[in-house]
Amino acid sequence: MILELEEDEIREKKLSELKKKYAEQQQNEKETAEAENRLDLVLRQVLEPEAKSRLSNVKLVNRELYLKATQAIVYLVNNGRVSGKISDAQLKNLLEQMIPRKKEISIRRIEKKI
């Protein structure tokens, strides 16, 4: 009987902990979705449709590059460095600057003559 009560208490504790974690997770997801919606609204106002489309494609392929680019765009807008809307060409230029340059490696083969 005492063991059953202890087991019930443990189950209830675990259940309440799981419910709490689930509620926190739901809240975090909601906050993230709201932040993404606000960011999307700002990007729609600042980017031309072609640039917005390109940035959406980048988001699908390379989430990290997308986040860097959006941070840079928001920074530029907040500091007044952008006048008008950002064109697709300007966005391409920004993205190219953010992609690290890879050093080209060339291999030469030297044959020995016997």
Please characterize this protein's 3D structure:
The chain is mostly helical. The protein has a single domain (2-98), classed as PDCD5, DNA-binding domain (Helicase, Ruva Protein, domain 3). It is 75% helix and 0% strand. It has four helices and no strands. The chain has helices at 2-46, 49-61, 63-78, 88-98. Helix 1 packs across helix 3 and helix 2 (49-61) packs antiparallel against helix 3 (63-78). The longest helix has 45 residues, at 2-46.
Question: In a nutshell, what does this entry contain?
Answer:
The protein is an all-alpha fold and 114 residues long. 75% of the residues lie in helices and 0% in strands.
Q: Indicate the radius of gyration in whole angstroms.
A: 26 Å
Q: Helix coverage percent of residues?
A: over 70%
Reading off the top of the CATH hierarchy, the class is best stated as Mainly Alpha
End-to-end distance: 92 Å
Name the poorly predicted regions.
none
Silhouette: flat
Structural class: mainly alpha
Overall number of domains: 1
CATH topology name: Helicase, Ruva Protein, domain 3
Estimate the mean pLDDT confidence: 89
CATH architecture heading: Orthogonal Bundle
Oligomer: single chain
Main sheet properties: none
Q: Please, what is the CATH homologous superfamily?
A: PDCD5, DNA-binding domain
The overall strand count is: 0
